[in-house]
Amino acid sequence: MENYIRVYPNAVPDLFCDKLISKFEDNPEQYYYQDRKNENLDWKMSFTQVHLSDHDIWKDDVKYMMDIFRMYLEEYKEDCNIHKMQWPQEYNFETIRMKRYWPDGEDCFESHVDVTDYENARRFLVFFLYLDDNKEGNTTFSQMDYSASCKKGSLLMFPPQWPWLHAGEKPIDKPKYIVGSYLHYV
């Protein structure tokens, strides 16, 4: 079976990645710490994030990334040999978020799927844009024995449903920065 996981290296220039990281760090009033645990499942997630569309200073960056995502979406459909009847005629993007994971041994997003209930069931494709090179900090798909390296400027795309169990691994040498969004059914 086709796994529908694709990585597109150099989707955005290094300078754009550097600019996003600097803007994130220069605006701490915009982001918040996300920390959730489920003791029954022995599961946790923790990172700092900002919803880019909530702040005007990100407007041009969001527009640029949406254009990039749209361009790679067409390549993704071709690479995965997706038939036009497999693809919704209408769709939309979820709000773009930027996340920072500290290399503190704590920040991570343990194995999960991104469609877990009625509210987020409209998601059908993930976009993760890595903003820096990072030793470790990969996105791993343990059941598929696959790992997407945390490489600056690369774009990872895959379906968010239950067969694509994945984890955002802990960075170990410096903070990890990613930007993410989803395609939604409308």
Describe this structure in words.
With 186 residues, this protein is α+β, with helices and mostly antiparallel strands. It has one domain (1-28, 42-133, 147-159). The protein is 18% helix and 34% strand. It contains 2 helices and 12 strands; from the N terminus they run βαββαβββββββββ. Strands 1, 2, 3, 4, 5, 6, 7, 8, 9, 10, 11 and 12 form a 12-stranded antiparallel sheet that branches. Strand 8 and strand 9 (146-148) form a beta hairpin. It is globular and about 45 Å long. The chain starts with 5 loop residues before the first strand and ends with a strand.
Instruction: Count the E strands.
Output: 12
Coarse structural class:
alpha+beta
Mean pLDDT: 95
Major β-sheet, in short? 12 strands, antiparallel
Compute the CA-based radius of gyration: 16 Å
* Number of helical regions: 2
Lay out the secondary structure:
Elements: E1 6-8, H1 14-26, E2 32-38, E3 43-51, H2 59-79, E4 91-93, E5 97-101, E6 108-112, E7 123-130, E8 139-141, E9 146-148, E10 155-158, E11 166-168, E12 176-185
Antiparallel strand pairs: 1-10, 2-3, 3-5, 3-6, 4-12, 5-12, 6-11, 7-10, 7-12, 8-9, 8-11
